[in-house]
Amino acid sequence: MLSVSALIRRNVTPGDVLRYGRSSRAPSALLHFAEDKKPVVVWNVTQRCNLHCIHCYASSRDREYPNELTTEEGFALLQDLAAFGVPVVLFSGGEPLLRPDLFTLMRRARELGMRAVLSTNGTRIEASEARELREIGVSYVGVSLDGLGPTHDSIRGASGAFSAALRGIKTCQAEGLKVGLRVTVHRKNAAELPDLMRLMTEERIDRMCVYHLAYAGRGAKISGFDLGADETRSLVNDVFDWVASWPEGDPRELLTVDNHADAPFLYLWMQEHQPGRAEEVAQMLRWNGGNQSGIAIACVDPQGNVHPDQFSWHQDLGNVRERPFSEIWTARDHPLLSFYRDRAVRLQGRCGNCRFLEWCNGNLRVRAESATGDIAGDDPACYLTDEEIAVRA
User: Buried b / exposed e across 268-303, counting CB within 10 Å, b at 16+?
Assistant: First the structure.
């Protein structure tokens, strides 16, 4: 994740990070810049979903899926994650609210000292659910919106999905929960991003995460609808300009996700628009470190399989029914983990020769693998020019 608003608005500075020793136990706003990176764990607690989204990395459907972790197995997982020092568990799906014991699991995560975050399509949040989320102490509720009414409903495969999601957002707000929009952009909805920005303002929504398309699950099937380099560049530039236009003291947050070329592009934008702060931002981008799959992001799927990130379900590292997550994650002999943690010397082509590799870390490997057949190949979503990435003499 790239904390665009924090960097453009100077809400976080190198001094803030250093004050906490670049520790993963620092406040959540500083987590991206920690040096002792413990993984944020995305736990897909169920694969079942009441919607059928065209870009779903889990290829979820509205049916029962066998062999998902039980409540007791979930407790054991959470106990191990807490002992290992995991700062955040992001409860995802499918649609996590379809799991009957979701609140029991989230409450246990909080009791163990971890932050609990919910990723949801928003359609299942009524007053009682929002109230319980508040009572549990959930840090954040991210609700997916892919456009306004007809566009969102089309992408989500259900009439009325937009109005139900917006109702869920308002219901969370009424309980005082921090809530945000999550939008995955591609050619079917990119034109409506300004409308979602206006919605964020009008509805006083705390946060927006702009996701680039990941070629995983059904997302791989629509890779042909991904934005081209010029389209992506224009969209991200507009996002940066919009955040810069916010009034002084605006508390909202905006992050971009899953295209780590956004980091060097932000630096280039800063050189043009806030040159006096460009090098300060460069330091923060180095600490951020770009893509953290297999390092500071992990995924546990509904059956307990551990993956380098939530998009890499085809890459198994082990299963928590057989070995604790902490043992799986610290294995020194697993070839996939070795690749992810030492990828800088293994990447090829543009990625391997990019002067911003330290800031991007090779972008999203699952997208490169899907497009080229090679996990070490180029990520086609990089929109920087050859001149911009060339190593300077």
Answer: ebbeeeeeeebebbbebbebbbbbbbbbbbbbbbbb
Q: What is the pLDDT of residues 28-42, one digit of tens each?
A: 777 788 878 899 999
pLDDT above 70: residue 157: yes
* pTM score: 0.96
DSSP H or E stretch at residue 144: strand 140-144
pLDDT digits (tens, 9 = 90+) for 65-122: 999 999 999 999 999 999 999 999 999 999 999 999 999 999 999 999 999 999 999 9
* Domain range annotation of the chain: 4-333
Closest CA to 30 of 69, 1, 52, 60: 1
Q: Which two three-digit tokens encode residue 71? A: 């409540």
Nearest to 7 by CA among 293, 207, 253: 253
Phi, psi angle pair for 134, to nearest 5°: -65, -45
In total, the chain counts a number of residues equal to 393
Q: What is the dihedral of CA 29, 39, 212, 44, to 10 degrees?
A: -110
CATH superfamily, domain at 4-333: Aldolase class I (3.20.20.70)
User: What mean pLDDT, rounded, does the chain reach?
Assistant: 95
| Close Cβ partners of 322 (under 8 Å, ≥ 6 residues apart) | none
DSSP 173-226: HHTT--EEEEEEESTTTGGGHHHHHHHHHHTT-SEEEEEEPP-STHHHHTGGGS
CA 292 to chain centroid: 10
Q: Which pairs count as long-range contacts for 268-275, CB under 8 Å and 24+ apart, including other chains?
A: 268/388, 269/237, 269/240, 270/7, 270/8, 273/240, 273/244, 274/8
How many CA atoms does the CB half-sphere of 229 hold within 13 Å? 9
pLDDT category of residue 45 using cuts at 50, 70 and 90: very high
Cβ atoms of residues 309 and 343 within 8 Å? no
- Cβ partners under 8 Å of residue 288, min gap 6: 2, 3, 32, 33, 263, 359
